[in-house]
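Recall the central idea of this unit: under ordinary conditions, the amino acid sequence of a chain determines the structure it adopts. In this exercise we apply that idea directly, starting from the sequence alone.
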Amino acid sequence: METLIASSLIDLLDFRATSDPWKSALGFLIKEQQIDPYKMESLIAPLKASSPSKEELLTAAAFLSLNEKLKYELKGDIIAHCDGIDETLRALILTLLGHNSYIDLEQAKTAPESLLYFGLIALLENSYEKKRTFLKRVGELNLLLDRKGNPFFSLLTDEKHFCLATLLTVFYLLFSLAGHFSSQKDFDQIANHLHRRLGLLEGFYLDAIPSHLLILSLLIEMHHEPEKCSFAIPFAKGFYRDRAIFHEQLTKIDFTLQFAGEGKSFGALSKGNIEIVAMGPQQLPLGVMENFGFFREAANGAGEFADIIHEEEQLSGWLKLCNYGAALPEPGNEWLHVDLKTKADYLTLTIKPKKERSDLYFAFFIKAKEAKVEGRQALKPRSLDRIRGEIQEIFFKDADEFLSLRTPDLVQIEVIPLAGGNHFFSANFLVAFPIQKSLTLEIS
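Accordingly, the structure predicted from this sequence is:
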């Protein structure tokens, strides 16, 4: 493919000013094809005296291996023109990552970084079947993208492990590698969009990208792929019962809902530049993320998720609440019934608990420029103000775009401005509706 994957990532980073010595060394390696061997030894020395992690060991060995290649083999201006891969690096990755549960393919369905490593194994082994499997799995990630190619990250990770730059980089590498394997342009188009999104992040967010992902990007860039697979991203729309995922595109709204997850968001939605980055049940106090999400394990057999009913323009099923406040996500003992109805321009959610609870809300984490309730001053992100009171409709605005949340009657809701970034899934606002006996919401 034409894009220089590692080079384009390094272009986003000020590698001369970074405080991370690995990124500094890697930046010079990729952009200037030179590295100080004494500096490298000083980086490697602490690893020799301790028990390094897989990522540290991979980074160290890859640097040493590539340094030898730079000395004796590389010709031309860019590493991407190199034919073949250093055998030491190939053996290291295959040994560390190729034959253990970390690369379990079933796990890779829901763990994008595991899927990325599986793709690298396919690359290093030059396995046509593994490449096809990798492309199929990456194609399935389209269920978690809006029409522009923006991922719904809250469906994959809880808030504690959310890092926007890292997740964007993993998805960028996944679709770049898929484009490396496939003759279709769908994958490259999404990869290019994700790269543009990375370019819009501020420097201190980019500095959070782990150095081992930059090494993996270099590995992809180095490898020449002589033969492409004929594989395009499948059209992803509708209900997928084996994964309990529903993906839909309305006239202006894209959204995905999931009924399987462990402490995850129930859904995410986008309308233009406005996003509901996460939504789901929230126990008081609001904003405590250990009290957010649901817990229902993925299907183990054909009989699973039999309660979920999907008909044209309608979907309904049960969510199990978490045991909120637990150190790790675990299932609770209570259930919510969710009913979805869709029309061309809006969707309606009705949430009913098995028994009424005064401390249970349905929360939306929203990315927008401002929040507005009729008759009140608009709220801005990072503001210390908030809205609390009986309200029937609230609007979220970004430029000329609007997203509305509306209830049939007045409801006592709360709207809290947030700071975005790596907290609350990058949301700018938290909106919470009490569920009580039942809650109906129209989103348009």
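Confidence is low (pLDDT under 50) at residues 67-110.
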